[in-house]
Amino acid sequence: MNSQLSAQLQLLPEYLSAHIVLSLLALALGIVICVPLGAFITRLPRVQWLTLSIAGILQTVPGIALLALMVPLLGMIGFIPALLALTLYSFLPILRNSVTGITEVDDALIEAATGIGMTDWQVLTKVQLPLALPMIVAGIRTAAVWVVGTATLATPVGAVSLGNFIFAGLQTQNVTAILVGCLAAAILAIVIDMSIRAIEVALTRRRVALSISGLAGIGLLALAALWQPLTASVANSDAESDRPVVIGAKTFSEQYILAELLAQRLEAAGRSTSVRSGMGSIILFDALANSDVDCYVDYTGTIWANAMQRRGIAPRRAVYDTMVAWLDSAYGIHTLGPLGFENTYALAVRRETAEQYNLQTIEDLTAVAGELTIGSDYEFYDRPEWQRLQSTYNLEMGDRRTFDPTLMYQAVATGDVDVITAYSTDGRIIAFDLVVLEDTRQAFPPYDAVLLLSPDASADNRLIAVLKNLIDAVNATRMREANKAVDIDQIAIDSVAHVLSEQLRGKGG
Amino acid sequence: MIELSNLTKRFSAAGRPAVDSVFLKVQRGEFLVLLGASGSGKTTTLKMINRLIEPTSGEIRINGQSTSTGDPVALRRSIGYVFQEVGLFPHLSVRENAGLPLRLVGTHPPEADQRVDELLARVDLDPEEYGDRRPQELSGGQRQRVGVARALAASPSVVLMDEPFGAVDPITRAGLQTEIKTLHHDLQLTIVMVTHDLFEALLLADRIGVMTNGKLVALGTPHELLTGDLHPDARALLSAPREQIDRLSHLLTPPADSHE
Ligand SMILES: Nc1ncnc2c1ncn2[C@@H]1O[C@H](COP(=O)(O)OP(=O)(O)OP(=O)(O)O)[C@@H](O)[C@H]1O
Ligand SMILES: [Mg+2]
After folding, report:
1. Same domain, A102 and A211
2. How far is CA A464 from CA A245, A269, A284, A453, in A?
3. Nearest-CA neighbor of A501 among A267, A292, A165, A200?
4. What is the pLDDT of residues A128-147, one digit of tens each?
């Protein structure tokens, strides 16, 4: 547990610093845009209503949707779309409080200011803005807390933040990571909130010392945030001058492990790397096509159904070949090759059941199916795979039951059911000592793990030389063991990736 | 010289005008007091002079120049104005408030401060004690005096005062009245002042104008008004204090038979 914590804490400086930079910059942009805009629209009552309505609508878009929307809109991933989404997210409170603060200044004061000969600009800057300042700062405070919270959702669009702890933790069931991420984000929000609150109180009560302490709080955060990138860039400039290889990963353990494996291999070969984990599947594919991400592992069936929009099913080899050609012609994406395992639907049985009925393939199951009960998750029996499975193997199970995915494994292990629909590389197959039945007649669509390179990376011969050692090197058992190490034994991802890497070398890969 | 000719203000198309066809000439160096019941249009008239309110019709000329053609900001900077609601800025100190008109015309700050301290002393506020306070930390009467100092700060030749001493106690008020009279004389100011207080009007004014329902119904020196043939509304207004004096003297006369 302790080593778990220290493993997570090692990541803290990078994630925290990225989180602060992202939040403070979004907030600064929000202030720079919305305070003048707010002041401007107090002079134009009609536009005022419209502008506030638009900002209000922006606010109702869920944070994660706004973040995801920025990716196709800007055609890129990472820091910039996250920054833009968070900036938009900060608009409403700052804009609304600016407008309210300015318009709520006593009419008699505005008349007096005009009457002693102030221009409209002077009335605004010398009277309205100073008097509205506490209100504006209160709006900034609200925005700050929202932005710090929402920034944890920037991980799936490829921006580093404290959300990296949370997304990785959720997928790998690593409670320590989730806690570290949540606590850090909460503490950060509290510190920023208190600092701005100090400035706000100082402004209303005119306490110079208090406002200095508030500003100092924000300043220290900014410094702390910049310290990490600065030291990192100093260290980097000695080692490697070209840009790091960006490795993508989706939101589950296997993806994290493989991304880490790629990173370790590249680092060992003297390349600097940057892992963008927890990215949405479609966002990641687009990022690869744009060369924002240099490489990641995807699955043939996923590309087939999502990117290529194919409905039917084809033989494994045909799917692979069609996909390789299509990726190349449509996007210039290079398929370096299959890793050597599939992550697909599979039927799994207890070892004793397998031995009792001598089961190795799904074909073997057909004869005894009537005596056995199958268990699956809520959606499987409605999927085309189930129809295909039944017709291909002429399978008539004695009974069928439905479970929550996590309980399904327990159910087969304890004998409640005899067969379950598992994912072929799930670590629980090993943990519960299950046997996977081979799909000899290809009832399930092929989901071969393939290593994809972006158009830019396709020309990087050094990168290709390092990564091609992984082609056909990872079999399903190895992958299952690695997944089990992370999901069930709660071992840190980098050490699991390291062990896997060593195993592959030992094998001569 | 300020000249109002046929000046009218309607806040709504229907209803009677707030200011109704007023003709008035204020001579250079004159102290003119506007008297009138609440809602009779005194404030509206003052605000039209420095263009805080634009007239519906009619014209205002200052030194022969129509005010409607020039830059309103420049016009307002050349006129001192004491507001009925005072209108001091809560985020500025007393000294900053009073010095604001000077800062607007770019006076060097130390020079502005010195001028402001002089003026604060003249309106009976010790600059040492009050200069750094916020308006919220003053009494109502003290605030009004800061308002007067502010109106005088930029050395305007025309000063408009809307009930400048409404919240000041009678003793301080008498002192301030004398001070204003002196300032008026020393600085050769042209002053238009609104008040409800007949005695103040009689004491200060070169001429008094009486307004009712937006109309200027009487205009003359205090002596002319007290002795002349007047509009009934004006007479009512002027006789109110006289009745008060009668009642007061009645109270002071010992009762004929105090005990049976
Ligand atoms: N901005 C405005 N909009 C509409 N009506 C107004 C406005 N300002 C003043 N009035 C109306 O114009 C009339 C004259 O108002 P004004 O403020 O000039 O009175 P006043 O003589 O200064 O009264 P007081 O002695 O109570 O200050 C009043 O009936 C008032 O209700
Ligand atoms: Mg008035």
Report:
1. yes
2. 12, 11, 20, 9
3. A267
4. 999 999 999 999 999 999 99
Residue A175 lies in a domain: yes
Q: Which of A186, A180, A150 is nearest to A168 (CA)?
A: A180
Domain stops at, among A436, A466, A490: A436
Which of A342, A174, A163 shows the shortest CA–CA distance to A253? A174
Contact A203, A50 (CB under 8 A): no
Judgement on whether residues A297 and A416 belong to the same structural domain of the protein: no
Determine whether the shortest distance from the Cβ of B258 to ligand 1 is under 6 A: no
**Could you tell me the CATH number of the domain that includes residue A108?**
1.10.3720.10
ipTM for the predicted complex: 0.89
Q: Which of A234, A263, A295 is the last residue of a domain?
A: A234
Q: Which residues of B touch A (CB under 8 A)?
A: 47, 50, 52, 73-74, 76-77, 81, 83, 85-91, 100-101, 104-105, 150
Q: Assess whether the C-beta atom of B23 lies below 6 angstroms from ligand 1.
A: no
Q: Could you tell me the pLDDT band of residue A403, with boundaries at 50, 70 and 90?
A: confident
**Residue spans of beta strands (DSSP E) within A261-383:** 273-276, 295-299, 334-342, 345-350, 373-376
With a cut of 50, which residues of chain B have pLDDT below it? 260
- Write the residue in A108, A114, A117 that is nearest to B101 by C-beta: A117
- What sign does the dihedral A350-A352-A355-A357 (CA atoms) show? negative
Check which CATH number belongs to the domain holding A378 and give it.
3.40.190.120
- A382 DSSP 8-state letter: G
Q: Residue A2's pLDDT band (boundaries 50, 70, 90)?
A: low
Residue A444 resides in a domain: no
| Residue B142 and residue B125 in contact, taking contact as beta carbons nearer than 8 Å | yes
Cβ pair B158, B189 in contact under 8 A: yes
> Where residue A322 sits, what CATH number does that domain have?
3.40.190.10
Of B213, B209, B160, residue with least CA distance to B40: B213
- Is residue A354 within 8 Å of A418, Cβ to Cβ? no
**A160 and A294 part of one domain:** no
pLDDT of residue A508: 44
Residue A232 CB: number of other CB atoms within 10 A?
13
Which protein residue's CA is at the shortest distance from atom 19 of ligand 1? B39
Nearest 5°: phi and psi at A215?
Answer: -65, -40
* Spatial CA neighbour of B138 closest among B102, A211, B148: B148
A334 and A273 within one domain? yes
Number of domains into which chain A is organized: 3
The H or E element spanning position A30 is helix A2-41
Helices A253-268 and A163-172: crossing angle in degrees, nearest 10, is 120
Nearest atom (ligand 1) to Cα of B42: 21
Domain residues for the domain of A216 are: 3-234
State whether A186 and A299 are in the same domain.
Answer: no
- Whether residues A120 and A226 share a domain: the answer is yes
Residues paired with B83 in a beta bridge: B86
Q: Is residue A19 part of a domain?
A: yes
Spell out the SS3 assignment of B122-173: HCCCCHHHHCCCCHHHCCHHHHHHHHHHHHHHCCCCEEEEECCCCCCCHHHH
Question: Are A129 and A73 part of one and the same domain?
Answer: yes
Q: Which of A112, A119, A131 sits opposite B87 (nearest CB)?
A: A112
Enter the pTM of the model: 0.73
Beta bridge partners of A248: A276
The predicted structure's pLDDT at residue A214: 83
Does residue A294 form part of some domain?
A: yes
